[in-house]
Amino acid sequence: MPLAITDETFPDFIMHPLAVLSFTSPWCTVCRKIHPALDALSAQHQGRIAFGILDVSVSPDTPARFGVLALPTIIVFNSGSEVSRLSGSVSRAELERVLDELSCSIT
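Above: the chain's sequence. Below: its structure in token form.
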């Protein structure tokens, strides 16, 4: 299950070797549709990749800092640096492809 991330917990969260953060909001129907994929991928990659969900209506500073203009937006971080970004309706297969590519390139 992805962690609930806030502006306060964000800096520690992104320091994982590979961290996937979904910027969402409760009113976003597309966001709710991708949550099952994030749940499944979180369980599949438990201990290797950190997954989190940040509610932009509760924690607005982090999305503003990263220029998140559309929901959902998923940003993948490698030890604090953004390495990939996906916006809009993203399939589980597409997210898996990105994670597989990044996992291979990150030691």
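The domain at 3-105 is CATH 3.40.30.10 (Glutaredoxin).
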